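Morning, I've got a small favour to ask if you have a moment. It would help a lot if you went through both lines with me. Thanks so much in advance, here it is.

***
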Amino acid sequence: TLAMRYGTPSIKEGLALLRQDNVEKLLVVPLYPQYSATTTASTFDVITNELQTWRRIPELRIINQYADHPAYIHALCESIKQSWDTHGKPAHLLFSFHGIPKRYVIAGDPYADQCHLTAHAVANTLQLPQDAWSIAFQSRFGRAAWLSPYTNTLLKDFPLRGITDLHVICPGFAVDCLETLEEIAIQGKTLFTNAGGKSFHMIPALNASNHH
C-alpha cells in the first residue's frame, strides 16, 4: 500500500485500506534513506497516532533508515554509472542532500552523519578520489544556521576553483520533485554556468528504476 506523508493518498487512508484487510503484521518503509526527526520520526508519529484509534493493533515494524544498505548504495552507483555512460564522467560529483537546521543535529539528530555515510559509501564503491566529490546541503530557508556547506554557495564557488564540469546527485530524494528538477536542475545549473561553469548535469533520482 502506498501512502503520502503530505499528500494523497494519506497515511490515514492507506492504513484504513490495510485495516479493511485485517492486516496482522505491518511493515512501514518511509522513503527517507537518512533518518531525521523532521521526516522519518514525523511519519512514525502519524502512523502511531492513527493506530491508537484501532481496537486491534497489528504487529508493527518501521524501517528507520537505509543510508548505507548495500542494495541502496548499489542502486545509486548504477544510476551514476548510467549517467556517466550517457554524458561522460565529470571532473567532479556533488552529493546534494536536503538540509536541516544545525540546532537539530546539536540536539542529537543523526541525519548529517547518515548523509555523510551514504556519500562515502558511494564514493568508495565507485573508487572516487577524495578531491573528485563533495557533499552539500540544499533547500535552506529562514535565518537560522543550517547544515553546510550550502549547495547554492558551492555551485557558485566551483568554477572559481577550476571545477567547470559537474554532475549533481541528490541521494536523499527517493523520487524527483521540485527540489531536484527545479532547484538543482534549473536554478542550480544557472548559478553554476553564470559563475563560469561549462558542463552541468543533474543525475535523476532513483524514481521507479529496477534497481530501486
